[in-house]
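Running low. Any example?
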Amino acid sequence: MLPLRLLVATAAVSGLAIAGLSPAPAHAAVPITDGTLALDADLNFNSSSCTGASAPAGVSAPFTAGTTVKRTLTFDQTATASDPTDSVRMRGSQTTAVSSTAAGGQVTSLTVTSTITGSVTPTKATSACDQGSDFPTGESSQSQVQAVLHRSTAGWLHVQATSTGVGGHIVAVGVGDDRFLQSEIGGFAIRDISHDSWVYVPAGDSEVQVQLGGASVDNFGLAKISLKQSVKLTFLPAGVARTATTGTARSKVVFPNVLTCSTGKAVARLTSKVRGASRVTFYVNGVKKQSYVRPGARTVVLTGVPKNRAVALKAIVKDGRRTLTAARAYRSC
């Protein structure tokens, strides 16, 4: 069983990162509580030499299970030096939407999407508004989704995150109670981000944070940016299949979508297309479990399915001179 942890994929500017998550308080069986979507922006310039620009006021909105909430933050600010011909214009816009699904009093999915544009336009190649090569003039916008998600049953969380386009990518996903793993991809890189992982989630309440954002700067070819980002969290039951059934016998053998974790069993099925086969043999993690001679359509109960590790089911079908196989892999219980 894997530990619950925070997963972060970030190519951030100005050291942006998710802070440690505090323990989530206990709640009744409400799928989502304390759901909030917030957007804010930062302007980075030499404020001791240039004035007239300030970060815009942030926007926020609550959200609950089964709803879609969307908010937009737009800004257009110009910082000017004592020389009125020396200025830098910083513009940006970010639209973020959060949606979720729930069933049986527990969350089944949470999706956050964001589109970002931004630009930095100085009037001079060398400006008094510059902060130096280490901290170039620029702007960034970020949206943050926070919520407490309720799960009455343990299972697996599938975390998928992408960020594509030109700009400083900011993507972070946090799940859990102050237990986290943080990685930084590329620092100031402009490359796309793609993250795909699975985390075992115990029953109960978990605090979740998702941060999406981008930055444009007067350097590194990032004076104008355009990004599309998404994060999807999908909750699936323990023992869920990792793949569809594969192999030449998949029309004859149907493996379950989910293992029966409570009893350590897997319930498979032979279809009517198995007629004519001389023998069908079933295996669990390479161990022979059942064998049938000239079987017809029937239900097959495979026992001894391990609960503490991944599971692989396999069937070998002898059909005349041919040997056909069907296989399916599962997450652990």
Notes: The longest strand covers residues 87-103.
